[in-house]
């Protein structure tokens, strides 16, 4: 996560260089070539930044667009004891999972671990309510963890034995 700050600072510096060159445009050819080189260097730098972000967990405090999500299915949890809780969530109405990190809360980590063990044993899913609520994280120390039982499969109707027509039978 620390590398992201350096990449961001480098992209800001490159953008500032491009902006200053653009302001003073009527210059000689070497300056314009420098602007072209700086712009060319800017594109892979931003690309590297976003590729690096793909595998990093997003802190829950930065999940501004997801604040209105009221339920999320927990797919996986990993604990960095005393530091962070890493959690894979499937948000309500989405297919692709998201990777988040939460600040360490002992009680929430214990509740989450116990719920995951029970859900595995019962073959059910774990759902947390209001996963991005600031109030839930600051006041109560965590979010509500629920175990949702799997839906019952519909029963098949019993198969009716096939009725074969016997042409020699007196009954029709």
Strand fraction equals 15-25%
Shape descriptor reads elongated
If you compute it from the alpha carbons, what radius of gyration comes out, rounded to the nearest whole angstrom? 29 Å
CATH domain topology of the largest domain: OB fold (Dihydrolipoamide Acetyltransferase, E2P)
Number of domains: 2
Strand segment count: 6
DSSP helical segment count: 4
Keywords for this structure?
172 residues, 4 helices, 41% helix
How would you characterize the overall build of this protein?
The radius of gyration is 29 Å and the shape is elongated. A six-stranded mixed sheet has the order 1-4-3-2-5-6, covered by helices on one side. The chain contains four helices and six strands. It has 172 residues and is an alpha+beta fold. The chain has two domains: 2-54; 58-148, OB fold (Dihydrolipoamide Acetyltransferase, E2P) (Beta Barrel). The protein starts with a helix and ends in a 24-residue tail after the last strand. β3 (84-91) and β4 form a beta hairpin. The mean pLDDT is 80.
Lay out the secondary structure.
Elements: H1 2-23, H2 29-54, E1 58-59, E2 71-80, E3 84-91, E4 98-103, H3 106-122, E5 125-129, H4 134-138, E6 144-148
Parallel strand pairs: 1-4
Antiparallel strand pairs: 2-3, 2-5, 3-4, 5-6
Helix pairs in contact: 1-2
